[in-house]
Amino acid sequence: MQETQHDKLQREGFSSSLGVIAATLGSAVGLGNIWKFPYVTGQNGGAAFILIYLIATLLISMPVMLSELMIGRKTNANAVGALRKLAPQEPWFLLGVSGVLSAFLIMAFYTDVAGWVFSYIFKAAVGTIHSTSPEQTYAVFQGLVSGVGEPLFWQIFVLVVTGTIIMSGVAKGIERVTKILMPVLFVLLFIVDIRSLMLPGASEGLKFLFDPDFSKISFSVVLAALGLAFFKLSVGMGTMTTYGSYIGKEEDLPRIALKVMLSDTLVSIMAGIAIFPAVFAFGFKPNDGPSLLFITIPMVFSSMPFGRPFMVLFFILVAVAATGAMLSLLEVPVAYLVEEHKLTRRVATLGTISAVALVGSTATLSTSLLSDVMFFGKNMFDFYDFLTSNILLPLGGIFFALFVGWRWGYQRMFTEFSNDRHLKNEGFAKIYFFLVKYVAPIAIMLVLLAGLGFLKL
Ligand code: PHE
After folding, report:
1. Mean pLDDT computed over 246-258
2. Where are the domains of the chain?
3. Model pLDDT for residues 386-406, shown as the tens digit of each residue
4. Quick one: DSSP state of residue 289?
């Protein structure tokens, strides 16, 4: 049989078990941990929010992740093709279509933030953000996001970098790099954690992170936690379906989902410990929003020995983590266009990144030229973010869960779950199945309706 370039890429990427973990974790770990988790936690009141986020991750988003991995591996196809194969002539493929759309909308704002990170590597290197004055780091960030040319330049830069990697198919290269850099990111976060914990007033930040105050909880807060749980594990939109299709038949999918979930959560918590003590120590407010990472972290580094080179390294690692996630986002539409519309990988990639650049520029300019353009009371950036995390991903999650629970059924699911082997103990499979058949769809539906204000509970 003739091997297409795409087939080769698939094999190249996920050659070993470690490679599978690196790629899957590479998709999960990203700006979601280091930028989004802290700022959304800050906006939603801290520890109680984190607790709900953890529950949502364990009971809902991880089971959906496993469902997607199984669907992808079973069919060896992109998000749309996978559902077409499993349920031909039925509308389930629309779930894949919604995934392609979500990937696109997430990229629109994700590449904007990734652009800020790349620009911060240089700002750290030349010393612009080497300051322990809150006014100074805040001013630098404001200067960046209220500009036009600078953030657009970085966004396009990010798209070109990601596109080039996807096009030239150096998935293996990226894996090799992430395998080394992920541990380095851990170590560096650990150092920042220690430094942050030693700041005067650090305990205030820890209290915010770990001492829950349930009076702050409302349904919109629960919806935000659920949305973050989906965004974090890259689920509800076909990323894990697509990556599942590159995973070998002998890999233990439940174990992969568990490992990725645990490591990903650890990185988020570590990012929280890096940021919140500093927030309080330097007199910022935890609900400062998307700017949180960019105004606090420079101050933590600036207040420690060798801060400047460490800060450069830190932003490089965040850029690498963001790139791993963006590769998986870009892969969703690209795999779809290549397999379902027979485009070459090159054309599919170029087309997608050009379209993302166009739509993404409206997110990037939402803090400058387009700051008056509002949708449902949100600027374009916040709108794309809200629409994907809090609506499209949870909706996708409902349907992935329903698909496995009601359309696929226990037996077919179990074959994929167990790699067609006899398991001594089917307990986990049964729990998982119960979660996707009943718990996830009902819980997500209720949270969605209540969180959006359609249902008064
Ligand atoms: N999980 C990624 C992060 O936390 C973001 C992402 C979402 C990637 C959805 C792919 C799909 O940064």
Report:
1. 92
2. 5-398+443-451
3. 999 999 999 999 999 999 999
4. G
Residue 381, classified by CB atoms within 10 Å of its CB into exposed (0-12), middle (13-18) or buried (19+), is buried
155 CB under 6 A from ligand 1?
no
200 three-state secondary structure: coil
Residue ranges of alpha helices (H) inside 289-392 are: 292-302, 307-341, 345-364, 380-385
H/E stretch holding 407 reads: none
Q: ipTM, 2 decimals?
A: 0.98
Shortest-distance Cα residue to atom 7 of ligand 1:
234
Taking 90 as the threshold, does the pLDDT of residue 111 lie above it? yes
Cα–Cα dist 310/305, whole Å: 9
Is residue 407 within 8 Å of 395, Cβ to Cβ?
no
Read off the DSSP letter of residue 4.
P
H/E stretch holding 378 reads strand 378-379
Distance 423 CA to ligand 1 centre (A): 32
Q: Name residues whose C-beta falls within 8 Å of residue 5's C-beta, 6 or more positions apart in sequence.
A: 169, 344, 345
> Does the C-beta of 324 come closer than 6 Å to ligand 1?
no
User: How far apart (Å, rounded) are the C-alpha atoms in residues 453 and 457?
Assistant: 10
Query: How many C-beta atoms lie closer than 10 Å to residue 58's C-beta?
Result: 15
pLDDT at residue 144 tops 90: yes
Find how far residue 92's CA is from the centre of its chain: 24
> What kind and span of H or E run contains 112?
helix 93-126
CATH code of the domain occupying 5-398+443-451: 1.20.1740.10
Q: Is the CB of 329 under 6 A from ligand 1?
A: yes
Centroid of ligand 1 to alpha carbon of 437 (angstroms):
25
Helix (H) or strand (E) holding 408: none
Dihedral of alpha carbons 115, 116, 118, 122, sign: positive
Cβ of 10 closer than 6 Å to ligand 1, yes or no, is: no
pLDDT in tens, 161-200: 999 888 876 466 566 666 777 788 888 889 889 988 998 8
328: CA distance to ligand 1 center in Å?
8
E runs forming strands in 48-155? none
| pLDDT tens column, 341-370 | 999 989 999 999 999 999 999 999 998 888
Q: How many CA atoms lie within 13 A of 69 on its CB side?
A: 30
Its pTM surpasses 0.90: yes
